[in-house]
């Protein structure tokens, strides 16, 4: 009927005469949440917790095994009036407590339904784990005794002095990190190199052991302070994305009375990681090479990534989440914020006036909205990032994991919720009256999204990587052997007819020329004599002179070419020329080049799959970005697309091995031989742009495809691309 | 050495709680299995086997009674040992058929035998009224009796139980079986003896109540093992309770039930709980109900509360809440808490706004008696739940009965699911095929009538307004019965066709009666208020010139026999003055004419102002009303008729969903309450 909390319940007769009481071992803790009093009941035999409201606790508290449920209910009604639990709520409460074995009833329970429930719970756990393939936990040991033994030593760290020490340590670490930030970033490209992976993993395990023990000791320590609680009975292996890591269960900390104690236990893992990172930073900054240096670097990397992205980030359900939820005094923040978003939809989109609001206070609502949206967004983001990361970095043999993981993530986070949602839409009792509206509005917004994504064409861009090269470039070689005597410095503007690039001398040639000239003179004299004596001999001498002339001419040419003139106007680039003075230049050695740097071209490469589309649909104008400098934007024109057939990349910078986008053959040591034939796209930057492209820069060209395509088509194509790249379909 | 009778053993072994309904994909799968199973040619199989039974007629008809006894004993041995096969069953049916012919002078027709096969194989047999369902049940009942674990034949009232037990008893006794019936007034010992008989005729209420009482007797003893243990520790038990628990049990376990009028018991009344309760005087609360009825009159329907007729709800507005607090500030303790105050006032408002005299209830002997929404029957022993009954009593200024304490309860649907084997017969089942399958796992088999049915089902007449409808009904009564204006008294109309008009409420029947009086048409009214003459009036409704106005289900089960010469006039004509929530109920009304091959015709006359269409197809009806604002003419068209059909479909779907959700809630509760032991 139209009453929200009906006082009576038709099944009341079944509980009315019972005389249940809380099981004897139950521990009760009082906690405040945003000004409301709650009671946490702990079942010490299985570490299960239930949180019940103040009113419910007043009810339960009066059940002593002598009073009947209905007597207690009547007393409650007198004392609490409207706040007293209704009959239905009492039934639910008793059922809930019984479900976690906290209730001792005076009747033999219905064992069949107990077993049913147990089976369902186990089933749910197993399903939950299967759904969560990325985070599997296997409990192995009970470390409580060990911790008990050592807590007297390590527990001392958890006080104000410890906090100050920790701050100093972290500050020191930070100091070194900031001081060496450039090198730190530079070294990061090596951290994922295959030969470092094992070290990386070992440092990860190390850090995690540190992390978990920190939790455990904190838990023990505050357990002692609280005189009770703080047991850690569960330690084992967690498979995070299939990598085994240690874990410990410090959940008994929830029972601590002070929320700051709980918070410290929750954050102690992160704090331990940060201190490890700080120590590692100090070591790293003060060593230059060697294993300690590398390990220290790995530790810094792991600790910062795991802290910033996972454990220290409250948007995922790791340590910081629980701490945040505790400090905000909003238990079950993640679940409830999602419920609250649902509630908003139910209440305002579907007009369900009786939707149950999961927020108890106004402050919670803001948190729910903020947290609900942020956590979902972050979760999707991190999931996609992990998958892309694995997609790029996993070796070929393990690659099959990526689609499996992607599939399970999609099933768990997309299909299952959608399925549940559809089931709710179709059969949810709550919707009985507004089903049409709910279905219509859901279907409507779904259609709207589909229309936006699937039908409305949007500008479609494709990105290709390229390198900048000059249009004209002449490599300057030494044309004859000689010793350098003078040169133009590198980066000088030169033009033909200007001063020579390099002046060299070759005394040998000089001497040879001199001897040849002398010889010729001798021959000329001889010839003049012969002219007078016998004419036949003069003719022979003429021939000899002629040959000698040729030789002289050749020598003179070589001498002339010792001075290398600029072959074209442009910039003379010869980085090593400073060291060349006085050195011997063998003929044919390249010295440098002259290139017209104002006139550059981008040589971009595209794999064959894209190429067909490029050839047919690419608009002429493209946007060009310089890699590493995303703010620099200029425009250009596609000059020509060379069809497939090339295998040698214009620059190794485009190859996979050094972070480019074109897969290269692994056996090619220079890294310029592409794994498959590619297309080359030549793009000429527009002259009017103010920024100058430098030769050798890596750029990304954003090519607009015509006509516009709906987003769905674009996404589908990109996704296909992603897989094709790995599977070579 | 104690000996426990096997009947008691079976009772102790009886499941006390039914299995939950499947959910999600399982439910879809189960429904699909039901749909596919419905395609099996069950009817043809049963008719074929009936032919085989008929072919045995000669064989048995030549036997002497003594020989028949002997054959019966032989068959009984076979069935008792569960060694029976197909041909034994056919033999048995042929034997019962022969015995029925000799003992009560009626030999089952082939369709009845086919129905018997349907019951035997655990189906719902749809057999038109008047086709002899009572006789049909004897065949499977005999076989069940021979099997020795008891058989309950569930009838709708005590009278029928007694009549059938006596009437058919001769057949059973001839077959060597004992037969008994259960009546309301019987003592526990008599009941125990009756349940121990091989075949027990009883009503659904009695059998369910006895089951609950047994459960209360068992108290904390759950299941066979603990009962046996209790038996061992008997000396102590006896001191405390006088007699051992297991000797106080009445029933012998739920083995096989044949439910007559299965649709009304298993569908319409399915979620009605049967409650064993005791008095719990609470003068304060009784007083509160009276005060609430007064308070309700102070509240203004426009500003203080909103009425939602579609879901039969009343909701207080914020101003209403404030006003309520103000009005009740001087009243007693119950009124001080906002929740209790609003709850009890809402009840009173519901009673005031949504429950009206002669529609939902009548007052008889200073008591509120519920009129069944579906059937228009008076429900004497029923009361509304959650204080609504008290609120209605307070509104009518009657003595408010104090709310009662429940000791045990079970809904009929959950009770009948406990039977190891269940089957049923009814005149109208195929509309509820899905429900019979999904809830009871019973397939429906439609058995043809013995003689082809020649009822003319005329298309509905749809009218825009209520007044036009009644006018049309009166003119139809005249036209169909070929009655000249002013033909009174009835003797003048002896050549006229008899007409039966079905109405949905007592009030509608009274209204029509006034109209007919004004037209000088002699007629008889059969509604909840005139219930005492029910059977007599119905039986006479087939006499020439008779006009009978009846609420839908009045006198269900009683045959309307046609008077002399009526068949030549075209038989009984039935007019439905409104469509019902379920097409089944419509068909039951229409099924009152053209029985057993008689001629007859039926037609529904409905209007857009009928409450039920506007409840389920609000928008369509609003549109139609707008379109036909200015007319009072007949607006029948496939479209307007379709709207009524659609409303019916929606209502049926909603009802099924509701019944399923009640069951689910029950099971959920069961689990929540598992610590209290089983119910």
3D structure, described in words:
The complex is a heterodimer of chains A (729) and B (679). Chain A is α+β, with helices and mostly antiparallel strands and 729 residues long. Chain A has 4 domains: 98 residues, no CATH class; 195 residues, no CATH class; 119 residues, no CATH class; 128 residues, Elongation Factor Tu (Ef-tu), domain 3. Chain A is 50% helix and 21% strand. Chain A is built from 20 helices and 21 strands. In chain A, strands 9-17-20-19-18-21 form a 6-stranded antiparallel beta barrel. Chain A has a 4-stranded antiparallel beta sheet with strand order 10-16-14-12, with no helix packed on it. In chain A, strands 2-3-4 form a 3-stranded antiparallel beta sheet. In chain A, helix 10 packs antiparallel against helix 11, helix 10 crosses helix 12 and helix 13 packs across helix 14. The mean pLDDT of chain A is 80. Chain B has 679 residues and is α/β, with parallel strands linked by helices. Chain B folds into 3 domains: 200 residues, P-loop containing nucleotide triphosphate hydrolases (Rossmann fold, 3-Layer(aba) Sandwich); 122 residues, Alpha-Beta Complex (Pre-protein croslinking domain of SecA), CATH 3.90.1440.10; 194 residues, P-loop containing nucleotide triphosphate hydrolases (Rossmann fold). Helices cover 48% and strands 14% of the residues of chain B. Chain B contains 28 helices and 21 strands. In chain B, the strands form 5 sheets. In chain B, strands 3-4-2-5-13-1-14 form a 7-stranded parallel beta sheet, with helices on both faces. In chain B, strands 15, 16, 17, 18, 19, 20 and 21 form a 7-stranded parallel beta sheet that branches. Chain B has a 3-stranded antiparallel beta sheet with strand order 9-10-11, with helices on one face. In chain B, helix 10 links the parallel strand 3 and strand 4. The longest helix of chain B has 35 residues. Chain B is globular, with a radius of gyration of 27 Å. Classes of the chains: A alpha+beta (729), B alpha/beta (679). The interface between A and B is large, with 39 and 41 residues.
